[in-house]
Amino acid sequence: MSINAGDLFRHLEKxxxxxxxxxxxxxxxxxxxxxxxxxxxxxELSALQVANIVSKATEHTKQHIHRTAIRAIVxxxxxxxxxxxxxxxxxxxxxxxxxxxxxxxxxxxVLNATKAGIYIFYDTRGRALYAxxxxxxxxxxxxxxxxxxxxxxxxxxxVKHPINNVEFKPAHQYVRQPHDRMLRLHDLAAYxxxxxxxxxxxxxxxxxxxxAFPNDLLNFKMERFGKGISKDEKAKSxxxxxxxxxx
Length: 247
Description:
elongated, two-stranded antiparallel ribbon, 4-stranded antiparallel β-sheet
Protein backbone atom coordinates (compact mmCIF):
# COMPACT_ATOMS: atom_id res chain seq x y z
CA MET A 1 0.00 0.00 0.00
CA SER A 2 1.38 3.45 -0.95
CA ILE A 3 0.31 7.05 -1.09
CA ASN A 4 1.17 9.69 -3.67
CA ALA A 5 3.52 12.37 -2.28
CA GLY A 6 1.68 15.17 -4.11
CA ASP A 7 -1.68 14.13 -2.62
CA LEU A 8 -0.19 13.81 0.85
CA PHE A 9 1.46 17.25 0.77
CA ARG A 10 -1.67 18.86 -0.65
CA HIS A 11 -3.80 17.55 2.20
CA LEU A 12 -1.14 18.50 4.77
CA GLU A 13 -1.02 22.06 3.42
CA LYS A 14 -4.74 22.41 4.12
CA UNK A 15 -4.61 20.77 7.54
CA UNK A 16 -1.57 22.77 8.67
CA UNK A 17 -2.68 26.02 6.98
CA UNK A 18 0.69 26.32 5.24
CA UNK A 19 0.89 29.11 2.65
CA UNK A 20 4.21 28.15 1.06
CA UNK A 21 6.42 25.11 0.50
CA UNK A 22 8.87 26.68 2.96
CA UNK A 23 6.22 26.73 5.71
CA UNK A 24 5.10 23.18 5.01
CA UNK A 25 8.66 21.82 4.93
CA UNK A 26 9.37 23.56 8.24
CA UNK A 27 6.24 22.15 9.85
CA UNK A 28 7.15 18.64 8.69
CA UNK A 29 10.80 18.91 9.63
CA UNK A 30 11.80 18.17 6.02
CA UNK A 31 14.13 19.81 3.53
CA UNK A 32 12.12 21.86 1.05
CA UNK A 33 14.13 20.57 -1.92
CA UNK A 34 13.35 16.95 -1.01
CA UNK A 35 9.65 17.67 -0.58
CA UNK A 36 9.47 19.47 -3.95
CA UNK A 37 11.36 16.64 -5.68
CA UNK A 38 8.96 14.01 -4.34
CA UNK A 39 5.99 16.08 -5.43
CA UNK A 40 7.30 16.74 -8.96
CA UNK A 41 8.28 13.10 -9.45
CA UNK A 42 4.86 11.95 -8.29
CA UNK A 43 6.67 9.67 -5.87
CA GLU A 44 4.69 6.89 -4.27
CA LEU A 45 5.47 6.82 -0.55
CA SER A 46 5.54 3.63 1.47
CA ALA A 47 3.89 3.28 4.86
CA LEU A 48 7.33 3.51 6.46
CA GLN A 49 8.13 6.79 4.66
CA VAL A 50 4.80 8.29 5.75
CA ALA A 51 5.48 7.14 9.32
CA ASN A 52 8.90 8.83 9.17
CA ILE A 53 7.29 12.08 7.99
CA VAL A 54 4.83 11.96 10.89
CA SER A 55 7.65 11.20 13.36
CA LYS A 56 9.80 14.09 12.11
CA ALA A 57 6.82 16.47 12.17
CA THR A 58 6.04 15.47 15.77
CA GLU A 59 9.64 16.02 16.86
CA HIS A 60 9.80 19.37 15.07
CA THR A 61 6.56 20.47 16.79
CA LYS A 62 7.99 19.56 20.20
CA GLN A 63 11.13 21.60 19.52
CA HIS A 64 9.09 24.53 18.21
CA ILE A 65 6.88 24.57 21.32
CA HIS A 66 9.96 24.34 23.55
CA ARG A 67 11.43 27.42 21.83
CA THR A 68 8.28 29.55 21.62
CA ALA A 69 5.83 28.47 24.37
CA ILE A 70 7.17 31.00 26.88
CA ARG A 71 9.19 34.04 25.84
CA ALA A 72 10.24 36.77 28.23
CA ILE A 73 9.40 40.31 27.10
CA VAL A 74 10.74 42.26 30.07
CA UNK A 75 11.61 41.43 33.68
CA UNK A 76 11.56 43.62 36.79
CA UNK A 77 10.95 46.80 34.86
CA UNK A 78 10.56 49.79 37.26
CA UNK A 79 7.05 51.18 37.54
CA UNK A 80 6.50 54.93 37.24
CA UNK A 81 2.76 55.56 37.71
CA UNK A 82 1.67 58.09 35.07
CA UNK A 83 -1.74 59.83 34.87
CA UNK A 84 -3.85 59.04 31.82
CA UNK A 85 -6.31 61.23 29.94
CA UNK A 86 -9.11 59.36 31.73
CA UNK A 87 -8.34 61.25 34.95
CA UNK A 88 -6.03 61.48 37.93
CA UNK A 89 -7.34 58.22 39.41
CA UNK A 90 -6.37 56.23 36.31
CA UNK A 91 -2.66 55.54 35.98
CA UNK A 92 -0.42 53.77 33.48
CA UNK A 93 2.41 51.54 34.71
CA UNK A 94 5.00 53.74 33.00
CA UNK A 95 5.23 56.73 30.67
CA UNK A 96 5.75 55.63 27.08
CA UNK A 97 5.83 59.13 25.60
CA UNK A 98 8.36 59.67 22.82
CA UNK A 99 10.34 62.16 24.91
CA UNK A 100 10.95 59.44 27.54
CA UNK A 101 13.30 57.56 25.23
CA UNK A 102 13.20 54.66 22.78
CA UNK A 103 13.49 51.90 25.38
CA UNK A 104 10.16 52.57 27.13
CA UNK A 105 8.42 53.56 23.89
CA UNK A 106 9.43 50.36 22.11
CA UNK A 107 8.62 48.25 25.18
CA UNK A 108 5.10 49.67 25.18
CA UNK A 109 4.74 48.77 21.47
CA VAL A 110 5.78 45.17 22.13
CA LEU A 111 3.34 44.88 25.06
CA ASN A 112 0.62 46.33 22.82
CA ALA A 113 1.37 43.77 20.12
CA THR A 114 1.39 40.76 22.47
CA LYS A 115 -2.08 39.20 22.54
CA ALA A 116 -1.50 36.32 24.96
CA GLY A 117 0.68 36.18 28.03
CA ILE A 118 1.30 36.59 31.74
CA TYR A 119 2.35 39.65 33.74
CA ILE A 120 3.52 39.86 37.34
CA PHE A 121 3.66 42.87 39.67
CA TYR A 122 6.28 43.07 42.46
CA ASP A 123 6.70 45.19 45.58
CA THR A 124 9.75 47.32 46.43
CA ARG A 125 11.63 44.23 47.67
CA GLY A 126 11.01 42.39 44.40
CA ARG A 127 8.49 39.98 45.90
CA ALA A 128 5.55 38.99 43.70
CA LEU A 129 2.28 40.76 44.54
CA TYR A 130 -0.08 39.80 41.76
CA ALA A 131 -0.09 37.59 38.65
CA UNK A 132 -2.45 38.24 35.75
CA UNK A 133 -3.02 36.97 32.24
CA UNK A 134 -4.69 37.78 28.98
CA UNK A 135 -5.75 35.86 25.90
CA UNK A 136 -8.34 38.30 24.54
CA UNK A 137 -6.59 41.67 24.56
CA UNK A 138 -3.00 42.83 24.59
CA UNK A 139 -0.84 42.66 27.72
CA UNK A 140 -0.40 46.45 27.88
CA UNK A 141 -4.16 47.08 28.12
CA UNK A 142 -4.88 44.22 30.53
CA UNK A 143 -1.94 45.10 32.77
CA UNK A 144 -3.06 48.71 33.09
CA UNK A 145 -6.63 47.66 33.87
CA UNK A 146 -5.32 45.46 36.70
CA UNK A 147 -3.06 48.30 37.85
CA UNK A 148 -6.15 50.45 38.60
CA UNK A 149 -8.62 47.81 39.79
CA UNK A 150 -10.07 47.77 43.33
CA UNK A 151 -9.67 44.48 45.16
CA UNK A 152 -10.89 43.49 48.60
CA UNK A 153 -7.61 41.65 49.23
CA UNK A 154 -5.60 44.88 48.91
CA UNK A 155 -6.50 46.44 52.27
CA UNK A 156 -4.09 48.06 54.71
CA UNK A 157 -4.70 49.87 57.99
CA UNK A 158 -3.25 53.37 57.56
CA VAL A 159 -3.48 56.86 58.98
CA LYS A 160 -4.74 59.60 56.67
CA HIS A 161 -2.65 62.78 56.82
CA PRO A 162 -3.51 66.23 55.44
CA ILE A 163 -1.87 67.18 52.15
CA ASN A 164 -2.93 70.83 52.14
CA ASN A 165 -1.66 73.83 54.12
CA VAL A 166 -2.56 72.66 57.65
CA GLU A 167 -0.63 73.23 60.85
CA PHE A 168 1.25 70.12 62.00
CA LYS A 169 0.42 68.80 65.47
CA PRO A 170 2.31 65.90 67.05
CA ALA A 171 0.30 62.70 67.35
CA HIS A 172 0.33 62.95 71.16
CA GLN A 173 -1.59 66.24 70.83
CA TYR A 174 -3.89 65.37 67.94
CA VAL A 175 -4.56 61.69 67.47
CA ARG A 176 -5.36 60.53 63.95
CA GLN A 177 -7.01 57.13 64.00
CA PRO A 178 -5.81 54.32 61.71
CA HIS A 179 -8.47 53.12 59.29
CA ASP A 180 -8.69 50.33 56.75
CA ARG A 181 -7.96 51.61 53.28
CA MET A 182 -8.44 49.72 50.04
CA LEU A 183 -5.35 50.12 47.89
CA ARG A 184 -4.77 49.57 44.20
CA LEU A 185 -1.77 47.93 42.64
CA HIS A 186 -0.40 51.34 41.70
CA ASP A 187 -0.14 52.04 45.46
CA LEU A 188 1.83 48.84 46.07
CA ALA A 189 3.76 47.76 42.99
CA ALA A 190 7.29 48.90 42.16
CA TYR A 191 8.25 46.55 39.30
CA UNK A 192 6.61 44.30 36.71
CA UNK A 193 7.56 41.45 34.40
CA UNK A 194 5.77 40.32 31.24
CA UNK A 195 5.93 37.09 29.24
CA UNK A 196 4.50 36.10 25.88
CA UNK A 197 2.88 32.64 26.13
CA UNK A 198 1.06 30.55 23.56
CA UNK A 199 -2.71 30.87 24.22
CA UNK A 200 -3.15 27.16 24.98
CA UNK A 201 -0.82 27.42 27.99
CA UNK A 202 -1.85 30.79 29.47
CA UNK A 203 -4.51 29.45 31.86
CA UNK A 204 -2.30 26.68 33.25
CA UNK A 205 0.73 28.95 33.73
CA UNK A 206 -1.42 31.44 35.64
CA UNK A 207 -2.91 28.59 37.71
CA UNK A 208 0.59 27.31 38.50
CA UNK A 209 1.73 30.72 39.80
CA UNK A 210 -1.41 31.33 41.86
CA UNK A 211 -1.46 27.83 43.35
CA ALA A 212 2.29 27.76 44.04
CA PHE A 213 2.29 31.11 45.89
CA PRO A 214 -1.20 31.45 47.44
CA ASN A 215 0.12 33.14 50.58
CA ASP A 216 2.15 35.75 48.71
CA LEU A 217 -0.03 36.84 45.79
CA LEU A 218 -3.01 39.15 46.14
CA ASN A 219 -5.05 37.11 43.64
CA PHE A 220 -8.32 36.31 45.37
CA LYS A 221 -9.35 33.55 42.96
CA MET A 222 -7.71 30.14 43.24
CA GLU A 223 -7.25 29.16 39.58
CA ARG A 224 -7.71 25.57 38.36
CA PHE A 225 -5.55 23.57 36.00
CA GLY A 226 -7.06 22.53 32.68
CA LYS A 227 -9.49 25.45 32.51
CA GLY A 228 -8.94 25.80 28.77
CA ILE A 229 -9.66 22.15 28.00
CA SER A 230 -13.05 21.47 26.44
CA LYS A 231 -15.54 19.12 28.10
CA ASP A 232 -15.04 16.55 25.34
CA GLU A 233 -11.26 16.58 25.81
CA LYS A 234 -11.66 16.24 29.58
CA ALA A 235 -13.99 13.27 29.12
CA LYS A 236 -11.48 11.55 26.83
CA SER A 237 -8.65 12.07 29.32
CA UNK A 238 -10.55 10.46 32.22
CA UNK A 239 -10.13 6.72 32.78
CA UNK A 240 -13.18 4.76 31.69
CA UNK A 241 -15.18 3.24 34.54
CA UNK A 242 -15.49 -0.52 34.45
CA UNK A 243 -18.98 -1.92 34.04
CA UNK A 244 -20.37 -3.51 37.20
CA UNK A 245 -19.76 -7.23 37.28
CA UNK A 246 -17.19 -7.13 34.47
CA UNK A 247 -13.42 -7.24 34.65
